[in-house]
Structures are given as structure tokens and as C-alpha cells.
Amino acid sequence: MNSQPADGWRMIEMASDLARQGVEFALATVVWRHAPSSGHQGARAIITADGQMHGWIGGACAEPVVIREAQRAMEERVPRLILLGDPDQFGEVAEGMTFVQMSCQSEGALQLYVEPVLPSPHLVVLGRSPMAATLAELAAGVGWRADLVDVPDFKTAHVGNRSVVVVATQGHGDEEAIEQAVTARPAFVGLVASPKRGEAVLGYLADRGVPRDLLDQVRVPVGLDLGHTSHPEIAVSVLAELVELRAKGAFDPAPLAGSNATSVEHHHPGHGHEHTTAGTAVDLVCGMTVPADESSRPFEYEGQTYYFCCPGCRAAFEKDPSAYMTVRG
Questions:
Q1: pTM (2 decimals)?
Q2: Which of the two residues, 212 and 281, has the higher pLDDT score?
């Protein structure tokens, strides 16, 4: 899907929508170009964790590289500055920049900033007490997506593997709420209750046959110990602990949700290390990462299929495969 540089603003709007929906993605922005690259300065694209790209940042040579680097940025939770071009065009690459050779019979080059965008934390508060309502309001106030749900209305569909569930029924349906919550397998389940009450609730559920490994994941009591506090202050203590846990990465699923890519590393003499993922291959002529499918001009040689970014690379390989097997293998 092509877009002009001005259409990058549409990508910003899409990014905002995805963030509100809790979808993880990376935003790639062209910050510099050297003609005749088809990418334009200011152009943007969104790459989701499953490798789907929306928008336009460059042609066939750039797209698979950007998708790969975007997935790595999401996995590592770190933005990256990428320089795509011919190594003969540049001197020493600046520290912290990722250089990827791009040789599609073109002298173009691109510099892109790829930023992983993590979804806002999703908090589901179970209960109808004033304290439960206060907790939901406080979470929303710090940018979390917060849902306040009464226990009879709660369904496992309300949560995902990144969701944080806090049971704050104050004794009105603790057992039912905890049983449904742990069955949904969210990132975290906490119970607002005294240690004695919590022990009784978990013991009852264990007797009912709820798996012990699920019950062991319930934090009880949830919230920082602030001593004798009011109900609104309990809500503050609960949110404080959740913020602390989130900062430590306690709610991050492992492996990354939506990503089943397997990293493979190839060493290219003179050009550093090339990383590919499942579903991609390295063009042995130019070193580009390309999709391992019919769109990349497959060629069978000695029982193995090789893929290429352009007809020229495929023709060069056909003419003398052994030369490229020696250099790139």
C-alpha cells in the first residue's frame, strides 16, 4: 500500500488507534534519503508484531529489512536507527546505528527511525465498591486502560495475556471472581483482602480443584503495605504496586505475543552480521533479506531453494552459483 509523505499523518492516526486498542506495533519513519530511493523523508509505516506492514517507506529492498528490524525492536523493547545503503557510499557508521547493505542495482539510501510502541497497561477491576471505582479512576488518570466490571458480568473475554486483574469485591464474590480470573490466565491477578481472608479464599478454590499453579500466581494481599489506611488510600497502594511491577517487566508476556519468529544469524564478510527470521531468506548475491516465497524469484540449486531481491541477482547466481556460495555461505 503506497502513500506519499503527507500520508504519514494518517499513519500517526492509525498508530493512535492501535495504541488505544492495546495492539503492539512499531512505527518506522524515514528521516533521511539519498535519491533515487523510492522512500521519501517523513514517510511512515506501521509494522505489527506478526510482520504486517501498513504504509510505505521504500521499495522491495527496504521493506523486508524494515519488517525484520521492527520485530527485533519490539522484542528488545528498544528503538533503533537504521541506515540502508551501499557500503561504498558511507564511511564509518555512527555508534548506535544499525547498518544494512541495500543493493538493488540502485544508488539510493535510507535512514529510518524504528520505534516500538507498547500498548497501555490494561487493568480490569472486579467489584462494585467505592474503592474499586477509585482504583479504576486512578489507573485511567495515569494513562492505563481501566475497566470496572461487576463480578456477575465478568467473562474471560474481558482480559488478555497482558491484562492485570485486581479483585476488589471486599468479600462479595471473591471466590467466584478469583476462579474466573485465573482461568483467563492474565499477566497478573491480585486480591484486595487480608492475608487470613486470602488464605481462606485460595484454600477453598484448591479444594474445588482449581490448579495449584494458577492459585500460586494470585498476589494477596495486593498493594504496598501502608499500614492502617482508608479505602481510597488502599486504591493508591494497589496502583503503586502495579506501577512498580510494570516497571520491572512483570506483565510482559514471554515470548512476545504475536511473534513466533526464530532468529538466524548469517555473517557477511565486510558487512557485519545479517539477521533473518522464519519466512525470510538472504539473497546470496547482494545480501538483502527477502521473503522466502514466490515473490522473491526462487531458484533451485543442488536440492535447495534460494531467493533473490531482483532479476539481476537471480541471473548472476544462475550464471555461477558456486561463486556466491563461497562468498556468502
A1: 0.60
A2: 212
